[in-house]
Q: What sequence folds into this?
């Protein structure tokens, strides 16, 4: 027992080196796993924050589009530019400066995609005068703030990777006829690593945008007259309509002259119902109707061919 107590022999150097190597391997594997978890967690956090930013930008865009503001009541001129990656429209500002003569408190808002920096930009043009200023024509995104142009510029969303894919889609090519806008943003904060890009989309119906009326009519022969009835015509906003009747064979100027939005020649009458008696011996009639809403938007109904029996020349 005394000999064992006095024994001073321990682990050999080889044994110590083997234990050290094993410890290094285990620690390395553990640290590698922790590093990978940390990197994945940081990537997910960055992606989630980026997606939240894009969602906020789409929410702001949707709110401003729903508050679409035309220059005057009913005029559908609130959208100034409707391009695939560049949208300009008028909206109601949140706050109104004291003493402002801008009664409607409108402002121009622009959303555009800077493809190089992959940022969605938001710009504002505000005014306090009664008259609506001219829309800035600068197509650069973003345009530099300047007197009489854009007042501000700010990044609405980062890491937008749409590339050639359009940001905005419209239900009409004519700005005055647009009633729905869809915005699609592809977000990817880490393009070189997974997870991949995420698409976020919203669609807004422009509830304040005046829409063109729809013209429809019936033509009923009664002896030598044609009873024209446009009561089937409608206006999306239920506004009262004006009705103008035309005969394609009539090339004379209308008297009195109708509004400039409708044809100035060939009209034979006005009103929702009109009894048209064509000249004798004038043959078959080709009649059409044009309706106009209070904002000046018009629509022409398809031409109808009407045959008056007993009137020369005879109908085919």
A:
């Amino acid at each position: 027992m005394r000999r064992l107590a006095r024994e001073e022999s321990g682990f050999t150097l080889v044994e110590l080196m083997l234990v050290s190597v094993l410890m290094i391997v285990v620690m390395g594997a553990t640290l590698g796993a922790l590093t990978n978890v940390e990197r994945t967690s940081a990537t997910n956090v960055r992606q989630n924050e980026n997606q939240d930013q894009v969602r906020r930008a789409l929410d702001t865009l949707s709110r401003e589009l729903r508050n679409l503001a035309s220059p005057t009541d009913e005029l559908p001129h609130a959208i100034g530019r409707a391009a695939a990656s560049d949208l300009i429209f008028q909206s109601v500002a949140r706050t109104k400066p004291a003493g402002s003569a801008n009664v409607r408190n409108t402002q121009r808002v622009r959303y555009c995609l800077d493809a190089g920096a992959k940022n969605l930009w938001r710009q504002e043009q505000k005014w306090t005068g009664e008259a609506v200023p001219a829309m800035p024509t600068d197509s650069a995104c973003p345009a530099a703030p300047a007197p009489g142009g854009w007042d501000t510029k700010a990044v609405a969303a980062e890491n937008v990777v749409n590339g050639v894919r359009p940001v905005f889609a419209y239900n009409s090519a004519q700005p005055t006829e647009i009633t729905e806008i869809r915005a699609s943003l592809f977000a990817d904060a880490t393009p070189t690593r997974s997870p991949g890009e995420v698409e976020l989309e919203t669609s807004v119906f422009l509830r304040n945008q005046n829409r063109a009326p729809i013209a429809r009519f019936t033509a009923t022969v009664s002896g030598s007259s044609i009873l024209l009835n446009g009561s089937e015509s409608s206006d999306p906003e239920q506004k009262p309509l004006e009705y103008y009747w035309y005969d394609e064979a009539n090339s004379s100027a209308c008297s009195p002259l109708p509004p400039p939005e409708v044809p100035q020649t060939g009209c034979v009458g006005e009103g929702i119902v009109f009894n048209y008696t064509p000249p004798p011996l004038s043959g078959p009639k080709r009649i059409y109707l044009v309706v106009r809403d209070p904002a000046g938007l018009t629509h022409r109904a398809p031409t109808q061919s009407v045959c008056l029996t007993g009137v020369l020349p005879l109908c085919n």
